[in-house]
Design a protein that fits this description.
The complex is a heterodimer.
Chain A: E1 3-7, E2 11-12, E3 18-25, E4 34-40, E5 47-53, E6 58-60, E7 68-73, E8 78-83, E9 92-99, E10 108-109, E11 113-117
Parallel strand pairs in A: 2-11
Antiparallel strand pairs in A: 1-3, 3-8, 4-5, 4-9, 5-6, 7-8, 9-10, 9-11
Chain B: E1 9-12, E2 18-23, E3 35-40, E4 47-50, E5 64-69, E6 72-77, E7 86-94, E8 97-100, E9 104-108
Parallel strand pairs in B: 1-9
Antiparallel strand pairs in B: 2-6, 3-4, 3-7, 5-6, 7-8, 7-9
The chains are: A mainly beta, B mainly beta.
């Protein structure tokens, strides 16, 4: 059974780059599936950030595209998110999730990690 | 893309049925059968409950069902139980882009 686990700093300074990694266990990241990031500001709804295939192909939310970079490390079975020039509005719980190939839903999710942007 | 419209809250008594609506446009919900629903308990990750409008993943109770009419999708929960109290999010997938609804808080009275 696939398990996902987010890791990274819980506190990031304004204007810095937020960096998170999602470790995948029980499943090969080099499958046909896509690997995504979704965030949720405190007390608010879900926002899709983007997703990546092990081949390196990506799709990003157009509203965040200029600040987002995703990458995959197949040797470590993990994928990563970088969000640059962060501000307080980027404070959120960040989830990584698995999206089956050619489908529009996320069937497995990590537990989420809270990232606070503050000086 | 704009977020899908959901009621902020719904409520029902144990044993009753409730329906949560999710309204989009003719370009998203109305155009494709790629609507999914997620359940989120407090401080927990979302859980997929319905995909492709009507399908339930393995392990999801058959008390949960989905439907779509025009630009509006819906999630019905029958035989409400206390454990169903949670936030529910719809999502539509168009042009490689998932869009979520604003979420609906379900209270079991």
């Amino acid at each position: 059974q696939v398990q996902l686990q987010e890791s990274g700093p819980g506190l990031v300074k304004p204007s810095d780059t937020l960096s998170l990694t999602c470790g995948v266990s029980g499943y090969s990241i080099s499958s046909s599936d896509w690997w995504g990031w979704i965030r949720q500001p405190p007390g608010k709804g879900l926002e899709w950030i983007g997703y990546i295939h092990y081949s390196g192909n990506t799709h990003y939310n157009s509203s965040l595209k200029s600040r987002v970079t995703m990458s995959v490390d197949t040797s470590k079975n993990q994928f990563s998110l970088k969000l640059s020039s962060v501000t307080a509005v980027d404070t959120a719980v960040y989830y990584c999730a698995k999206k089956p190939a050619a489908q529009g839903w996320f069937d497995s999710w990590g537990q989420g990690t809270l990232v606070t942007v503050s000086s | 893309q704009s977020a899908l419209a959901q009621p902020a809250s719904v409520s029902g008594s144990p044993g009753q049925s409730i329906t949560i609506s999710c309204t989009g446009t003719s370009s998203d919900i109305g155009a494709y059968n790629s609507v999914s629903w997620y359940q989120q308990h407090p401080e927990k990750a979302p859980k997929l409950m319905i995909y492709d409008v009507t399908n339930r993943p393995s392990g999801v109770s058959n008390r949960f069902s989905g439907a779509k009419s025009g630009n509006t999708a819906s999630l019905t929960i029958s035989g409400l139980q206390a454990e169903d109290e949670a936030d529910y999010y719809c999502s539509s997938y168009t042009a490689n882009t998932p869009v979520f609804g604003g979420g609906t808080k379900l209270t079991v009275l």
